[in-house]
Amino acid sequence: KELATAAREFGGFIARFVSGSLEQGVGIFEDKLRYMRWERQVRLMQRADEFLKERGLSRPTRPVQLKVAIPLFQGASLEDDNELQDVWARLLVNAADKDSGITVQRAHITILENIGDLELRVLEKVFAVPEESATKGLYTKYLPEKILINKPEEENLRPSPEVEWAIANLIRLGCLVGHMSWGGTPLLSLVNQTVLGRSFVKAYAKPAT
Predict the structure, then answer these.
(1) Do the Cβ atoms of 29 and 6 come closer than 8 Å?
(2) Beta bridge partners of 178
(3) pTM of the model
């Protein structure tokens, strides 16, 4: 009985976002999502509805393609971190809002599946710098607290090992580019923005007011 209730509730939620029937939504739930944690699915539904209401919407205004919607629902249902699940929910709402000016791509989902809270904080600091101010690179020494346009005076420019790992992961995902050392390895102390990284941050951003 509980599974049937969950299937109907989350199936109805899915149907709203893909502009399908309740039966289609329930079918997607039973095929792809029935083993996901129900409390995380409930929170996703609540947050998505809240974000719709923030922009004056009672329901989605365009269908989300299934090739985007299904992995998005899966990733959002697996996410234990509330801040990251909010990113999933905003990604979903932007995909479902015809006036968002955003086309959510499968690549955005792949990035979000592969980052944690630290990478998210690094990205937001890096892409808070206007593109025209970041052309010569950004210094990562004090991430995730702040990013610098000008070179720090300290001799050691390396960030913490945890931040270096996060930057290396973001470089791997195509969100950042590291400057190269004489030996040909990326310098994690100096990075550049990328088109993909900028697109990803925009894809889950709140609408401009």
Answers:
(1) yes
(2) 191
(3) 0.90
